[in-house]
Amino acid sequence: MTELERTHDRAPVPASWDYAPAPEARDLVQLRERYGHFVGGEWLEPRETYTTIDPSSEEPLAEVGQATSEEVDLAVGAARDAFENGWSGLAPAERAKYLYRIARILQERSREFAVLESLNGGKPIRESRDVDLPLSAAHFFYYAGWADKLEYAFPNRKPRPVGVAGQIVPWNFPLLMLSWKIAPALATGNTVVLKPAETTPLSALLFADVLRQAELPPGVVNILTGDGRTGGALVKHPGVDKIAFTGSTEVGKSIQRELAGTGKRLTLELGGKAANIIFDDAALDQAVEGIVNGIYFNQGHVCCAGSRLLVQESIYEPLIGKLKRRLTTLRVGDPLDKNTDVGAINSQQQLDKIKELVASGEEEGAEIYQPPCRLPEKGYWFAPTVFTNVAQSYRIAQEEIFGPVLSVLTFRTPDEAVEKANNTPFGLSAGVWTEKGSRILAMAQQLRAGVIWANTFNRFDPASPFGGYKESGFGREGGRHGLEPYLDFE
Ligand code: NAD
Ligand code: MN
């Protein structure tokens, strides 16, 4: 028998187990140098412009328009024309066909959209690819199905469209929030003027291309870019019948004051300070995954984020130990890297707000933990953060941070958990982790929140209505409920 020649005395083992970079191809996206407003199916040359950037590098991406009140007027006029001259009278099954087409095109072009969403917004490509894009397409598919069934959704109530909808969306889920707004509006026979957030206009502008591909009649959807001044002009415009707003509670309140007495319809989806409640019988490792998904998903730029962790005292030590260990495995960095878990903060302004609130937490006496991680030099970054020793009165337990920052509180009894969870001016979402089904139901009945997740968090489905109580706003998006704000009844 010949002896095997041994060239190595040990198997070749890599010296380091770090992930290699796995960047998604940036050239899937072809950007223009300059974009106008999409009005009446045409590109309108903007009167004023500004530069939109990549928040992970601060590199400029494109020039986009800052719509003035004259441009708002043109867009509302185009939407009114389209409403009166065809769209509102179209057979519902025909409307549905356009929605199905849009959904299909979004699926076909999903990689391109995912890259663009991560480039302009800073979110990890894994999330834009696996969450934002599939859910956006799903919303169009879902509402396409309702378009010709409104009589069944609202029997004997003779539903008819409201007219021209002005829609204002935020920067945390630019394309998904656009889809949440446009899909139900079109399914119910309305026309739209939509304004994306000033820091993330590009996916809405690419969506205009999808509308042309789908051959949607001109003027049915118009897209204006610009900041709060453009939003303000849209809210004030007398030709708008309904405003749908998602964004900060402060701006939401000002819109509500502005519209009082005008007869315009309004829905508001505002901030949150959700409690994620962990009982001592919960599966701890799964709960840790849910906590991480609840607050570090999309850098915590999530209105329904589980930003207040309520832990039953008896499991406090093991749970926090596991959570801190899990945080050391989160990869913070390049949004276009497929291994990235936490991407860039959306803007300098948002980074300043997060830093200010985190500083207040330290001053008020909370204990801060951040895993060791190296943040890129350029761009806007914030390490995943956990605060323990938090009192209910601290600002970090009361105010929406909208960043990757978790505040941990404890409780002893279910009643105490409910009391603490409800001790907030918000009421958008909550999470309950327990093995007991009866406890889930009992908690869900007492928590004042629009969405309650049991043994999961941040799970979305177009068939499920989403929206708030109290200062989190009113009106629902998604599900059959999501049709109602866009309909008038006999
Ligand atoms: P914002 O409310 O100012 O912006 C949201 C949208 O409203 C944007 O499109 C913006 O251009 C527009 N807007 C601003 N002022 C307006 C006005 N006066 N009239 C009409 N439209 C107007 O939010 P922001 O300043 O980008 O973020 C501030 C805070 O708001 C965040 O830190 C976060 O707490 C919260 N926020 C919540 C959500 C959410 O999903 N609920 C989204 C974004 C921001
Ligand atoms: Mn603002």
3D structure, described in words:
It is a single chain. The chain has 490 residues and is α/β, with parallel strands linked by helices. It has 2 domains: 37-270 and 469-488, Aldehyde Dehydrogenase, Chain A, domain 1 (3-Layer(aba) Sandwich), CATH 3.40.605; 272-454, Aldehyde Dehydrogenase, Chain A, domain 2 (3-Layer(aba) Sandwich). It has helices at 69-87, 92-108, 110-121, 125-146, 150-153, 174-187, 202-213, 228-236, 249-259, 284-296, 316-327, 348-364, 395-398, 414-422, 437-446; strands spanning 37-39, 42-44, 49-54, 59-65, 160-161, 164-168, 191-195, 221-223, 242-246, 265-269, 275-278, 308-312, 367-369, 385-388, 405-411, 429-433, 451-454, 473-474, 487-488. It has a 7-stranded mixed beta sheet, sandwiched between helices. Strands 8-7-6-9-10-18 form a 6-stranded mixed beta sheet, with helices on both faces. A two-stranded antiparallel sheet has the order 1-2. Helix 3 (110-121) crosses helix 4. The chain is globular, with a radius of gyration of 24 Å. The termini are far apart. The structure holds nicotinamide-adenine-dinucleotide (NAD) and manganese (II) ion. Residues 228, 248, 251 line the site of manganese (II) ion (MN).
